[in-house]
C-alpha cells in the first residue's frame, strides 16, 4: 500500500488552521490577547446598563437607576445596582431599601418586613416613600386591600415632594382598584401614571382593557394605539392587536379589523374574528372557510359556533343551525346569545 502521500499528522486544531503549524508562540499569545480584549469591549447590556460603563457611575447614579428599575419591577437591575452600591460604600439605608424590594418581589415577606423595620427612622423622603410602596406591595399580595391602600396613599403623599414621584405606588394603586372592581378609581390612578411617565406603554394597554370592558370603544382604541405607538413590539403585542380587531368590529370598521387580525398568530379565536370580518365584508365563502378552520382547531370555539349558526339560519338550514348551537351550549350553557 502506498502511504507516501498519506497525511499522518494529528488532527489540526482551530488555532492551527488559522495560524499554521509553524506559528510562533509569541504570535499565538498576541492574538489571544487581542481576542480577550475584544471580548471585554463587547457591549453587554441588562435593560440598557452597559457593563463597561458601570464602573464610571457614581453612587447617586446607581441609586437613581435602581429606583428606575423598581418602576419597571426589573429585579435583576435592582440587584445589580444594589451590589454596585455595596462596593462603593453607599449609605446603608439605600442598600437596605433595594434589598427590601427584591425580597418583596421574591415573596419573602418576613425578610422584607425586617428590612423595612430597619428604615422606619429614616428622614430621607425617597427612602420613606418607597418603604410605604413596598409595604403596599406586600399587603396587596396578601390581599389585605385596606392596608395596601393606606400604605400606597402615604407613599403617594410623601412622593409628591420628590423630583420624580413614586411611580410604582400609582401603578399598584391602579391595579388594586381594578382587582376590586372600582374602575373609575383605577382609571384615575392610571391617568396619573401617564402624567408621570408619558412613555409608559403598558399603562395604555391597562387603560384600553378597562375601556374595552366598559364598551368605550373609541377610547379603548385610542389607548391601544397609543400603547403600540409608545412600544411597537411589546411582549403583549398580539393581545393588543386582537383587542384592536375586536373593537374595530364593534365600530363596524371591518377592513381595519381584518388588517389588525392578519398581524397575529393564527389561532381558533383569531380565525373566528377574521371570519366575522369577511362575513360583514360580503366574502361569505372566505368566512365559511375561516370558520371551518377555527372549529377544526377548537370544536367549541364560541364565536365560530355563533357565526356558523347565524349563517345556517340565514340559509334556512334550521336543523343544522340547531345542532351547531346545541354544541355551543355544551361548553357555554349560560351564554345568552347562544340560548336566544
Summarize the topology.
Layout lengths: L13 H6 L5 H17 L3 E2 L2 E2 H4 L4 H13 L3 H14 L3 H14 L3 H9 L7 H17 L3 H15 L7 H13 L3 H14 L4 H13 L3 H14 L6 H14 L3 H8 L6 H13 L3 H14 L4 H13 L3 H14 L4 H4 L1
Antiparallel strand pairs: 1-2
Task: Describe what is shown at a glance.
The protein is an all-alpha fold and 340 residues long.
Average pLDDT works out at 86
What is the end-to-end distance?
Answer: 91 Å
* Helical proportion, percent range: over 70%
Summarize the helix and strand pattern as letters: HHEEHHHHHHHHHHHHHHHHHH
Largest sheet: 2 strands, antiparallel
The CATH homologous superfamily of the largest domain is named Tetratricopeptide repeat domain
- The CATH topology annotation of the largest domain reads as Serine Threonine Protein Phosphatase 5, Tetratricopeptide repeat
CATH architectural type of the largest domain: Alpha Horseshoe
Plain-language structure description:
By secondary structure, this protein is mainly α. 71% of the residues lie in helices and 1% in strands. The protein has 20 helices and two strands. It has a two-stranded antiparallel sheet. It is elongated, with a radius of gyration of 30 Å.
